[in-house]
């Protein structure tokens, strides 16, 4: 089926309608980045059988849709409105009951559509983005694996638009810090339009994976979800990008798609299924199977936290692991040499987290992490099960030997045998520094929801590089951690 978009673009689509007469609520599902129009075929069939008109389409620049990729920009939004126009004119669709849903690229479209088209009455965004720059360039650090994969697919499977072309050119010229600028990520970020989304009033369902290496969870939890004043719901499950909802695309029973269906049933069809009365924040563990924990808000889920001070890593005689103490530990210094990878490692985007929903991941022995290249700190072994919910927040002072300092922090669950499982990681790049001058830094990790068993401990590692990010340290330069008496180094742990 061909649907006319804006500016003469033709969009390749699949349209499904119920057998019974209308009018029916209509769901528009834009396909994911590089995914064919058949992506949602199985869940769309179920939705159509239950009484929805469903329109699936490839955005401009992908497969048989004409035009060039717009990365969720104004041309894509004009196309989305044109698809709604077409559905209302050519199917038994109810103009007062328009919903948007999608995964990844389609999720971003759906959230942006809630800001740009007043006819949208409900949204379900799975593994989407709200802050495009924050997702792809966290704390000024380019997610190299992700950015290059998206560029590659956009220039091979798709037909890249001028923004993607210029972005790739900036990378080729070595202008890493400017690779996202041609895309104008703020213009393509739903968070930019939060006031408009609230004014339009469409209820928003957000569903994501804890370890999403493309669109990490903090872009929802940090600001976006709490600023929404519309009816809202937020769900997190273990895994990486699109994994929680992925099984539903193949017809496997799926809790995320169940939530999407219930959400649309209630807000588009008026079904009294109770979803509006449930606690809207729903959290499964970050690693391994487990039950939902539910809360009335994100702020209610995250405890005030416990401040632990980073101890001297030179005192322990063997493994040189500093203690995360309850009392300030000051006066120490620890210097690392940059440019060397350590066993603290985020792995390969998406692929390394495939086993997380099942409690499977390559274990790490952090005793092998050279303290010449990393700082390592740990809590005591917990005497009882201890629940972590929310982001760990690190504050420390660094003194670089170069004008740029790049660090990557990691959080591990370490068992009684010293074997560690990665729970969260986050980079930070600080530029325009004065070599030899100390500077305080703050690093907020991606949030977690994890119960630590008795006998386990939290281990914090900070090193200078990870293959998932573009390296910016001068090889062989040094970064010194310290804890001045007037500004002790600490980590706030999200435990009660």
Write up this protein.
By secondary structure, this protein is α/β, with parallel strands linked by helices. The chain folds into 2 domains: 2-300, Rossmann fold, CATH 3.40.50; 306-493, Galactose-binding domain-like (Jelly Rolls, Sandwich). Helix content is 22%, strand content 28%. It contains 11 helices and 24 strands. The chain has helices spanning 41-49, 74-90, 105-116, 132-136, 144-156, 162-172, 194-200, 218-227, 243-249, 255-269, 298-301, and strands spanning 2-4, 10-16, 24-30, 53-57, 93-103, 120-126, 204-209, 232-237, 281-283, 293-295, 306-310, 322-325, 333-337, 364-365, 374-378, 386-390, 393-400, 405-414, 419-430, 439-444, 448-452, 457-463, 478-482, 490-493. The strands form 3 sheets. Strands 11, 12, 13, 14, 15, 17, 18, 19, 20, 22, 23 and 24 form a 12-stranded mixed sheet that branches. It has a 10-stranded mixed sheet with strand order 1-2-4-3-5-6-7-8-9-10, sandwiched between helices. A two-stranded antiparallel ribbon has the order 16-21. A hairpin with a 4-residue loop joins β18 and β19 (419-430). α2 (74-90) packs across α3. The longest helix has 17 residues, at 74-90. It is globular, with a radius of gyration of 24 Å. The chain starts with a strand and ends with a strand. The model has no long low-confidence stretch (mean pLDDT 97).
